[in-house]
Structures are given as structure tokens and as C-alpha cells.
Write a structure and sequence with these properties.
six-stranded parallel sheet, about 250 residues, alpha/beta, 8 helices, Rossmann fold
């Protein structure tokens, strides 16, 4: 038996479990299982790894993508640069579990975003400052796109508050990425508090949320003519990249 899973808290609306269960059935991987492991604290992680000897690796979601770094034995360069991990591989050939951290969010975001980019997008607004936001920013900076974070509690020079997000800022930043959980099931009537009236046909709105398929954030952007993308493709791409990592003996 090969077991994989997802850690985070809560995990009531997990994409990963459903995705991998379908993948295992489709590809006749009857020896594989995928489980949710809702950890109220990362202090529970070492016990989980010890008590689940067939656990080959796991994904990491809110709120642990940044905090999990302190619990790993190795972090690859990309994840270290981003400062967040969403995929962990467990190497059990060293006498004790050896946890290796990677970031596949960046691959998923880059690959899913690329078809929608054009030369006019030079500046971006990122809603949120968590682990997913860091992966998004890393990709955009490598693409030469400047990033401005919007936070409820701005603490750095590249961060502003929602109340400071005005027309001129939105005019210059034609890509807006929502990395927060605002608008996700079951709170589908919610959306990030931004001045949507300044969005135009030149804007691209990208929501990392996939459920619902069209969040209120995306729907309001469409009302003003913006192009919109949800997070389903990104999640599928990052999941497949995680699968590659778990099954690559050289990683």
C-alpha cells in the first residue's frame, strides 16, 4: 500500500482528495490511497508520519504552507526562495523519515496563467499575503511583472490596505490575483472588498479558488468586461507535479 494525503485545518472542502481518488481509479493504481489529515497543530505532524509508515508524501494547505518549513529536513531551492511549501516527499531510506519540501503551486500558477498574458500586463495586484500569495509573486516577478500585495494588515513597503486600493492603482495593475479564501464554498456571497467599478476590459482577474467555478470576485469582474480565470487548472497542474515528485527516485 502507498498512502498519500493532505495536511491543513480545516479540510472540509479539499480538492486534493477527490482529485487523487479519481486519478487512482482512472489509472488503475489500486495500491494507492489518499487521505485528509486535519491537523489542529503542526506539532501533530511528527506523530502522523511515525504512525503512518506507508505514507509516501503529502500536500500542505491553509494555514501551514509557511509554518511547515520549520518541520522539514530539506527544502528545495524554489520553495526556499518562495518561503512556502505545498508538497512534501517522505524519504524512508535513511533509517528514519526524512521530509523534503517543494512548491508546486508556482508551477501550477505559471502554466495556467501563461496563455492569458499579454504584453500590456506589467503590474499586478495580489490579494492576500500567505503562502499561496508568495508562490504567485515569485512567478510574476520571474515574468517581469511588478507586484503589489493587498493585506488587511500591511507591514511592508510592497503592501497596502484594502482601503488604499483606489482607481489609479487598479488602472495601472491590469492583473488582479485573489489568493485569499474569500468567496469559497460555503461563503459564496462574499468577495474581496475592492473597488470593482474601476475594472475594465483590459483587466485579467485570476482567482485561486475553484469552488465555486465562478466566484463573486470573478462574476463582478466580468460585469465590467474583464477576462477571468479560476483556480481549477492551477490545482490540477500542481497536483500532477506533486505526483511526479513523490514518484521520482532522483528527487
Amino acid at each position: 500500500m502507498k498512502r498519500y494525503g493532505l495536511i491543513g485545518y480545516p479540510l472540509s472542502h479539499s480538492f486534493s482528495k477527490h482529485y487523487f481518488e479519481e486519478k487512482f481509479a482512472r489509472e488503475n493504481l489500486s495500491e494507492c490511497r489518499y487521505e485528509n489529515f486535519p491537523l489542529q497543530s503542526l506539532e501533530e505532524l511528527s506523530r502522523l508520519v511515525k504512525d503512518t509508515p506507508d505514507l509516501q508524501g503529502f500536500n500542505v494547505t491553509i494555514p501551514y504552507k509557511e509554518k511547515v518549513l520549520a518541520h522539514l529536513d530539506y527544502i528545495d531551492d524554489n520553495a526556499s526562495e518562495i518561503g512556502a511549501v505545498n508538497t512534501v516527499k517522505i524519504d524512508r531510506h535513511r533509517g528514519k523519515p526524512f521530509l523534503k519540501g517543494y512548491n508546486t503551486d508556482s508551477f501550477g500558477f505559471y502554466t495556467s496563467l501563461l496563455p492569458f498574458l499579454n504584453k500590456n500586463i506589467t503590474d499586478a495586484i495580489i490579494l492576500g499575503t500567505g503562502g499561496a500569495a508568495k508562490a504567485v509573486a515569485s512567478v510574476l516577478k520571474k515574468l517581469g511583472i511588478s507586484c503589489l500585495f493587498v493585506s488587511r494588515h500591511p507591514m511592508r513597503s510592497d503592501q497596502i490596505s484594502y482601503t488604499d486600493l483606489c482607481g489609479p492603482v487598479l488602472y495601472h495593475a491590469q492583473l488582479i490575483v485573489n489568493t485569499t479564501p474569500v468567496g469559497m464554498v460555503p461563503d459564496t456571497d462574499a468577495c474581496p472588498d475592492i473597488p470593482y467599478e474601476f475594472i475594465t476590459v483590459k483587466h485579467l482577474l485570476y482567482d485561486l479558488i475553484y469552488n465555486p467555478a465562478e466566484t463573486k470576485f470573478l462574476a463582478r469582474g466580468k460585469q465590467w468586461g474583464a477576462r477571468v480565470v479560476n483556480g481549477l487548472s492551477m490545482l490540477s497542474l500542481q497536483a500532477e507535479k506533486a505526483w511526479e515528485i513523490w514518484n521520482d527516485d532522483c528527487v
